[in-house]
Amino acid sequence: MRTVFGYMLIVLLLPVAVFLFYVANAEAHKVRSFDEVVDDKIVIKDVHLSQASTIVDKDGNPYLEIHQPYRIIADGKNIPPFLKELFLQSEDKHFYEHSGINAAAVMRAMLVNAKADGIEQGASTITQQLARNVYLNHDRTLVRKVSEILYAYELEKRLNKDEILNLYLNAIYFNHQVYGVEAASQFYFQKHVNELTKAQLAFIAAIPNNPSLYDPIQHFNNTKKRQERLIDMMKREEFITASEAEAIKKEPIKLQVRDRIDKYASYSTYVEDELTQLIAKTEGFDQQLKNAKGDEKAVIEHKLKDRVEKVRSSGIIVYTSLDPALQQKAENAVNSVLSGSSVQASAAVIQNNSRNIVALVGGRNFDRTQFNRSFQGFRQPGSTIKPLLDYAPYIDTTQASIDSLVSADKYCVGRWCPKNYSGKEYGMVTLKTALANSYNTAALRLFVKTGNEKAYSYLEKFDFERMTEEDRNSYGKALGGFKHGMTTLEIAGAYTSFIDGTFKKPHAIQKVTDRQGNLLYEWKDEPQTVWSKATTYKMRALLAGVIQNGTAKKANPGKAYAGGKTGTTNSTKDLWFSGLTDQYTASVWVGKDLPESIRYLESYAPNQLIWRNIMR
Prior knowledge:
Keywords: Carboxypeptidase, Cell membrane, Cell shape, Cell wall biogenesis/degradation, Glycosyltransferase, Hydrolase, Membrane, Multifunctional enzyme, Peptidoglycan synthesis, Protease, Transferase. This is Penicillin-binding protein. It comes from Pseudobacillus wudalianchiensis. Residues 64-234 form the Glycosyl transferase family domain. The chain is an alpha+beta fold. Among the domains are: 2-31; 70-250, Penicillin binding protein transpeptidase fold; 264-377 and 488-527 and 574-616, 3-Layer(aba) Sandwich (Beta-lactamase). 46% of the residues lie in helices and 12% in strands. The chain has a five-stranded mixed β-sheet, covered by helices on one side. Strands 7-6-16-15-14 form a five-stranded antiparallel β-sheet, with helices on both faces. Strand 15 (574-581) and strand 16 form a beta hairpin. Helix 3 crosses helix 10 (220-236), helix 5 packs across helix 6 (142-158) and helix 10 packs antiparallel against helix 11.
């Protein structure tokens, strides 16, 4: 009976078994190996370590390090074997034997942590520490520890042991925002890592175990004691002899902490801004932004920001045209002329033969946290616009001479009847006299004779950032009335057209390279003709007359050639002077950040004095 029942049970269960077989078989095809799961979850395309970038002046001397963090990547062959062994013996003796995880050390740590009911002891290999430094954080949690092990597993699959060790030595933290052995060597001893003695190598090797406790600047004795323990360890492991160990421990350690390189903030803050412009121009972001609609612009701006940050953290060298002596001279001119004043100022200086920006002043006693008025401060240009919009277009269009006559009597455009600054009328005067004395009615007449569209077409060649359609249709611009205005740097750039009749947007950056000297970025602007040679010659004579016989006598630097134009806005809220010598073109603005009258300074003419002191 039991035999019959058994057969019946088999017959009944057979379909169920077949069904389970097919289900199990289908699921088995879906099962992936551990490697496949980890590869899918832990994506490592490459190991990127950020490093400090450097901005250098016209002579190749660094004046700013862009670093957060400060890291200089060292090639493995330039890292002394003694230093490598110090870290191997102190951090991971079995580094070349395990595959990223030291199982025995993990078990010991688990027992200790289980007893403590928390994370008391780590068991991280060098590979795990590299994974933590590059991809993770330093939270002492189980989740982070598991992630660290998985990343270490992947790193060991993709890199050989020497590559992992070299990356680790370039990634570890040495306090004071210093990362990697080369940066630590330069920061604490002002030497390359391959120039350090064994005592110095052991000293910096002591720091990463606990960067706060072994901070050489704050806790030198702690660092020295750990250095000596490391040396004893190396003696015990027979990498050095007992006598050598004693000699190393007795060698005096004299720190030569390297100051952060951060000079000429007025200039360097502009360079950092220009670097973004250069990357945007070279990689097409500028066109994308121009064509973007709606929310697209914010997305593109975010991509550009990420790209700039990636470039900045890649260890680039930015070559600029900064002239340190002239920069200091310009800063001194602003600070001394306005000493004790609540008024602000900015200045921009461009070298004539190269059209490069050689000096910038963002404000009186400027520091990095301030608003940089030289390129961020848009102000009404006043009469400094007259040579660019009224006189040169009129002369270029009509071929008038500097002795041609124009009326300086009352003149109205519609219901707008501007007056000369003195309130007087002067009858028929030459163009030279009209500009030298900055007669408003004469300038407006020249503008109207040229025609609004024709005159404006010349101004458009200078690429003023914030000109608007409202400006295009306004007659007020003939006397410096714009919706937003111009920056000091923009006006200086436009005045370079009076050097030889051409305009090329001035830049501070000459080129950008990687640390191996490979060219990454450079400007490729070509000059364009604005004025004819005849017009340029006449305008230079007119501008010289302003300094020799007109409103800018205090600006005279005593050069063979000097010419320029003053500018004063309504209610004397802004004082300008822009002009050129045979070597440089410069613009100076003086005013308050929240516009208000500074008429009490007008007779003192700080705008002219600053310009003169820079150019003299």
